[in-house]
Amino acid sequence: MELTFLHPLLDRPGPWASVVIDTSRTTEDGAKQAELRIRAAARDLARLGADKRTVDALTRHLAGEPPSGTPAARAVYATDGKVVLDLPLACAPATALTAWSALPRLAPLLPLRADHPDVLLALIDRTGADLELCDGHGRRPLTSAQGPQWRDRGHRTVPSDRYEWHYQHRVEDTWDRTAQVIADEVARQHDAAPGCVVVLAGDARERHEVVRRLPHPLDADVTELPSGGRAPGGDHALDQELERVRARAEADHMERALARLAAGRARDPGTGHAVAPEMGGRTAEGVPQVLRAARDRSLDTLLLGDSSGDAARTVWTGPEACQLAPGRSEAHALGARYPVPARADDALLRAAVALDADAITVPAGAPGPIGGVGALLRWSQAA
Are 347 and 315 in contact (CB under 8 A)? Predict the structure, then answer.
């Protein structure tokens, strides 16, 4: 999961009130039940020691209209009498979660938030393409790529005389240039949002010509769909295909991350560090090693087991997200004048947000990191 949506939580010192709560109103008494859940969350926060200004601000916010529609659940974070972030969630928690802590309680929202990557969709025909961005909120237009126009003058059939070759050549040349215009625009849009999955929809020959002109390695990582195109109709079938593409991309991302983690378990007997040459040896497992990776700013992808005792370990952190250590004195030595205790998963997630790293929740039963906490690194850790 890409974590930039959590950036607003980096700029305030806390302590933080965190609430992850079911806000669905699908039953006849849904509004009343939602009100009761909000009141219960407010009581829990007060019991945990949250100040009245922050509790009141969070309660008023939850009682108002949700950010968009009526999501199944919301994760709301407040501090110093102000609500800082309100996130709609795809799934509701089994029970409401409330926390009053030095850091925002982040780990529970990961498995509840839809993690499918966005799709950059190009709907192609012989004259150009319409580009759209598809995410959890549907499809929205981005831009169009229009090729050069050439039409035979008059209403006649393709000539069967000596001019036929010239006619066909002009048509093919126009399409070649159109395919290049489309490929250039797809590459430009992907550069602006490199995490997107690229999907081309339209006639097979048109898709092939566009893919052939895409730069490497983008050309090798494109999904082609036979359904869809610029002509109206077929949107429902295309939407279903896009959701399958997004789900498959998420599963592939998880599989690649776990394969890289497993390869990194080969140990150098001289140092004890992970050394998988084909993967660059860039992995870490266990809370101490992952804390070190965050301090070194080498954290690329944080891996957290869905049910991990190690994730709940207490670590110490300073005002800077990467001031992390297993003990208070060690955090103090890193420059944190007044370090505070925090859960390992929340502290590491805050560091991942600050480092623009990703995070993956590994489901129970999957071959995740030892102890439930691991990382893929940007470079190898020094001995």
Answer: yes
Structure tokens at 278: 């084909």
For the record, the structure tokens of 57 come out as 């601000």
| 290-312 per-position pLDDT tens digit | 999 999 999 999 999 876 678 89
Q: Are strands 340-343 and 314-317 parallel, antiparallel or unpaired?
A: antiparallel
Q: Give the number of other Cβ atoms within 10 Å of residue 28's Cβ.
A: 8
Q: Which residues contact 173 (CB under 8 A, 6 or more apart)?
A: none
Query: Contact 323/336 with Cβ under 8 angstroms?
Result: yes
pTM: predicted TM-score of the whole model, two decimal places: 0.78
- Distance, in Å, from the CA atom of 99 to the CA atom of 77, rounded to the nearest integer, reads 10
Instruction: Specify the 3-state DSSP secondary structure of 356.
Output: coil
How far is 17 from 15, CA to CA, in rounded Å? 7
Question: H or E element: which one contains 167?
Answer: helix 164-192
Nearest-angstrom CA–CA distance, 33 and 38: 9
